[in-house]
Amino acid sequence: MKRLTHSMLAVATGLFLAGSAMAFSGSYVPGAGINGTVHDLGTPGANGMNYGASPADPLQRICIYCHAPHNTYRLSSATGGAGPQAPSEFDYLPLWNHTLQDPTGYTMYDNGPGAPQSGAKASQAIINGMTPGSTSLLCLSCHDGTIAVNSYGNADQISESTGSTTITDAYAIGKDQYLGNHHPIGFNYDDVQAGDTEIRSADTAMLTPTSFVRDHLAGDAHMECATCHSVHNKGNDGERLLWRSDQNSELCLTCHDKGIYTAP
Ligand code: HEC
Ligand code: HEC
Ligand code: HEC
Ligand code: HEC
């Protein structure tokens, strides 16, 4: 029995090592820029990640996985030009170069039928409705696991990668387009704050020493992935690309009036 347990452990450990071989194994300083972070994909094998371009990029570029200088995705409203045209759900395309997925069909945050159905305390995002905004859809184009991380560019450019490696499970967010058990995104923060008495005002709660929650809302005051995360590891103080550290849950207490808020 003891021997069996040991061999089972060995198998389990082996599987664990094999399964995590592709995940990020490095470390980086919050706010110090994108180099050497989880989003520095240009050097195959660096920091345990292997999302190398196909064919290999001799320049080992970082930005190209997400941005290119020419003929990137066009807005759906474009009437001329070259490069692929994005679906109308994408209303923000900063020279976007990473293959986009189908933006429809996401199941948004849902706390279940047993949740309080009235009262001005919570569930306001659900009552108001949620749709993932363009900036979140850009994250999801890698993170929901449907599109390969190393698939970028298009036939109207000179650099294109046709890789097929999707994101490691531990970093997948919204697998099978299910965002039901992820922190709500894609809603108007002000509308929710007006109905939820325990959400702080976007104009008074500071997320970094120099910016308010307001500065991290997208478009029409929408809360998105980038409200909590700094994709380039720039301007943030927190671990895991967070705008502020979640030490003592300070990130959560910035917006949620459930304890003592300390400005960063
Ligand atoms: C993993 C994807 C990713 C990589 C790699 C990346 N970016 Fe971005 N970038 C984004 C996303 C997503 C946005 C829009 C959302 C946001 O700014 O939070 C953006 C926005 C931008 C913007 C416009 C808004 C701003 O923040 O100024 C600039 C400029 C930019 N990126 C430059 C760069 C440069 C230069 C590099 C390479 C050194 C780079 N990015 C690498 C994902 C990426
Ligand atoms: C080009 C693909 C791509 C895009 C676009 C992208 N990411 Fe990532 N992201 C990755 C990869 C790859 C990893 C690391 C996965 C691994 O280790 O295997 C990662 C890791 C992360 C992590 C983990 C940080 C840590 O230290 O553990 C966070 C947080 C994150 N991404 C947030 C975002 C957000 C927010 C956006 C959009 C604003 C975004 N990402 C857009 C590819 C991408
Ligand atoms: C309310 C703030 C908040 C929002 C909004 C948010 N995240 Fe996160 N995210 C976090 C925190 C906090 C962690 C760290 C979790 C931990 O360390 O256990 C994290 C961790 C991650 C990780 C690391 C893997 C993991 O499961 O912990 C990834 C990847 C990530 N977020 C991507 C995203 C994407 C993509 C979106 C939008 C769909 C998003 N985040 C929206 C707060 C947020
Ligand atoms: C940038 C502001 C912000 C940050 C940071 C933030 N939240 Fe939220 N959170 C919100 C808003 C706004 C809602 C929607 C409230 C509503 O629907 O009434 C919400 C919803 C929630 C809900 C769902 C409530 C329900 O009714 O089901 C929980 C639980 C939650 N957040 C926990 C957290 C935790 C834990 C953290 C830290 C890891 C965190 N939040 C960080 C703004 C934030």
Map the helices and strands.
Layout: H1 2-20, H2 124-128, H3 134-143, E1 151-152, E2 161-162, E3 187-188, H4 189-195, E4 206-208, E5 211-212, E6 222-223, H5 225-228, H6 250-255
Antiparallel strand pairs: 1-2, 3-6, 4-5
What does this structure look like?
- By secondary structure, the protein is mostly helical.
- It is built from six helices and six strands.
- A hairpin with an 8-residue loop joins strand 1 (151-152) and strand 2.
- It is globular, with a radius of gyration of 20 Å.
- The termini are far apart.
- The model is unreliable at 1-21 (pLDDT under 50).
Q: Can you give me a brief rundown of this structure?
A:
With 264 residues, this protein is mainly alpha-helical. It contains six helices and six strands. The strands form three sheets. It has a two-stranded antiparallel sheet.
Percent helix, as a range, is: 10-25%
Determine the mean pLDDT.
Answer: 91
Q: Distance between termini?
A: 53 Å
Question: Into which percentage range does the β-strand content fall?
Answer: under 5%
Per DSSP, the total helix count is 6
Offer a few descriptive terms.
two-stranded antiparallel sheet; mainly alpha; two-stranded antiparallel ribbon; 264 residues; binds heme C; globular
